[in-house]
């Protein structure tokens, strides 16, 4: 028997109703399980009393979820959903206040949301210095600051403050950075280019090839942050800003050109600062600062303990040792290594390093960023 168009439509409608009813049942079960998880988290908070947020525990949960992910959702989506559930549960136990390099709409705010989820209260700071001070004074629980970009290298002010500050590094987060040309106008007018372009100095540098090709004569004005650039562009109709989508939405700007960064894999790494570092998570990094004694072969002698104990070094960067004295050409070295300082091999390597270095400061051990 042939099925008419009306019969087929009726069968499709019945199938849709059945599928939607199934989704409703699953949503109810998800809500029940999330609520049960929240009650368990509350009970853990009652037992622990002290610091509730444990970066190593969150990292372990996120890794386990990815390993168990059956699809079809990609790992990144599963991690994002789980992060938000953990964030909401943590807020029931201990509401967090997080400082970040502001104003609202910066990439640092996006990194803070990626790491902590939507539940904490975010406190924008006018400078990296202010974010460090907020943690030192106990005015916030944690701070998020940029430390390096894959295109433009290290953020010098963050490195300088890590040397002089008492804060600990308890986490890291990497964020793919997409730069956009923003303006109040709906489109670029080739006969009347913008009067100027505002952005952070690093963002201008990350987009210099695109700017040279498309707007070579327009002055580029560095400002404190991309969000500040967007705010200024919103107040000056004849100007543009380079910033992210969040800044465009917050300040009511149009995206005239998207993803204008010169390197498609442009990524910024941010550090999570607190009054403590993290326990071992199983996939960790340790960050430290040290100086070599002024003698021949000093660097080889300084770094030899890592090779002797099988420790992989992932980053080595030098910087003038302004706050340590030692002369005009004195330098310190910022080093990231794989592993947690509580691990016996790494502890032995650090002890040997301490005996050889003119100066050693361990900034913290923390879970390596996932994705």
Please give a structural write-up.
This protein is α/β, with parallel strands linked by helices and 371 residues long. Among the domains are: 96-177 and 267-271, D-Maltodextrin-Binding Protein, domain 2 (3-Layer(aba) Sandwich), CATH 3.40.190.10; 180-257, D-Maltodextrin-Binding Protein, domain 2 (3-Layer(aba) Sandwich), CATH 3.40.190; 278-367, 2-Layer Sandwich (Alpha-Beta Plaits), CATH 3.30.70.260. 43% of the residues lie in helices and 25% in strands. The chain has helices spanning 5-48, 55-68, 75-93, 107-116, 128-136, 156-164, 201-206, 208-214, 226-235, 245-251, 298-308, 344-356, and strands at 97-101, 121-125, 142-149, 153-154, 168-176, 180-183, 196-200, 220-223, 239-243, 254-257, 267-274, 284-291, 313-320, 331-338, 359-367. Strand 3 and strand 4 form a beta hairpin. The chain is globular. The mean pLDDT is 90.
Order of helices and strands: HHHEHEHEEHEEEHHEHEHEEEHEEHE
Please report the total strand number as a whole number. Answer: 15
Strand content: 15-25%
| CATH architecture classification of one domain | 2-Layer Sandwich
Main pleated-sheet profile: 6 strands, mixed
Reconstruct the topology from this structure.
Layout: H1 5-48, H2 55-68, H3 75-93, E1 97-101, H4 107-116, E2 121-125, H5 128-136, E3 142-149, E4 153-154, H6 156-164, E5 168-176, E6 180-183, E7 196-200, H7 201-206, H8 208-214, E8 220-223, H9 226-235, E9 239-243, H10 245-251, E10 254-257, E11 267-274, E12 284-291, H11 298-308, E13 313-320, E14 331-338, H12 344-356, E15 359-367
Parallel strand pairs: 1-2, 1-3, 7-8, 7-9
Antiparallel strand pairs: 3-4, 3-11, 5-11, 6-9, 6-10, 12-14, 12-15, 13-14
Helix pairs in contact: 1-3, 2-3, 11-12
């Amino acid at each position: 028997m042939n099925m008419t168009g009306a019969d087929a439509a009726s069968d499709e409608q019945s199938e849709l109703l059945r599928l939607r009813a199934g989704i409703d049942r699953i949503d109810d079960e998800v809500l029940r399980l999330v609520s049960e998880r929240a009650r368990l988290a509350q009970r853990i908070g009652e037992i622990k009393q002290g610091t509730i947020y444990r970066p190593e525990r969150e990292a372990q949960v996120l890794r386990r979820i990815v390993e168990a992910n059956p699809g079809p959702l990609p790992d990144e989506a599963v991690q994002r959903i789980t992060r938000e559930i953990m964030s909401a549960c943590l807020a029931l136990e201990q509401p967090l206040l997080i400082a970040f390099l502001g104003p609202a709409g910066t990439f640092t705010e996006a990194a803070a949301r990626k790491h902590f989820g939507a539940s904490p209260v975010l406190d924008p700071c006018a400078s990296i210095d202010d974010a460090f001070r907020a943690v030192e004074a106990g005015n916030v629980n944690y701070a998020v600051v940029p430390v390096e970009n894959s295109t433009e290298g290290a953020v010098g002010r963050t490195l300088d403050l890590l040397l002089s500050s008492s804060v600990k590094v308890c986490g890291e987060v990497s964020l793919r950075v997409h730069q956009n040309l923003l303006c109040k106008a709906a489109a670029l007018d080739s006969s009347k280019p913008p009067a100027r372009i505002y952005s952070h100095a690093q963002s201008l540098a990350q987009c210099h090839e695109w700017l040279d090709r498309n707007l070579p004569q327009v002055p580029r004005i560095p400002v404190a942050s991309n969000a500040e650039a967007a705010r200024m562009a919103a107040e000056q109709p004849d100007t543009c800003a380079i910033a992210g989508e969040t800044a465009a939405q917050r300040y009511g700007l149009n995206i005239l050109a998207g993803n204008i960064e010169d390197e498609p894999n442009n990524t910024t790494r941010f550090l999570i600062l607190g009054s403590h570092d993290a326990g071992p998570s199983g996939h960790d990094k340790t960050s430290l600062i040290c100086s070599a004694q002024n003698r021949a072969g000093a660097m080889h002698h300084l770094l030899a303990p890592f090779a002797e104990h099988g420790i992989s070094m992932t980053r080595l960067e030098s910087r003038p040792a302004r706050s340590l004295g030692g002369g005009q050409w004195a330098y310190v070295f910022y080093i990231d290594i794989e592993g947690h300082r509580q691990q016996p091999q790494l502890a032995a390597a650090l002890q040997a390093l301490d005996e050889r270095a003119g100066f050693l400061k361990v900034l913290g051990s923390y879970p390596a960023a996932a994705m």
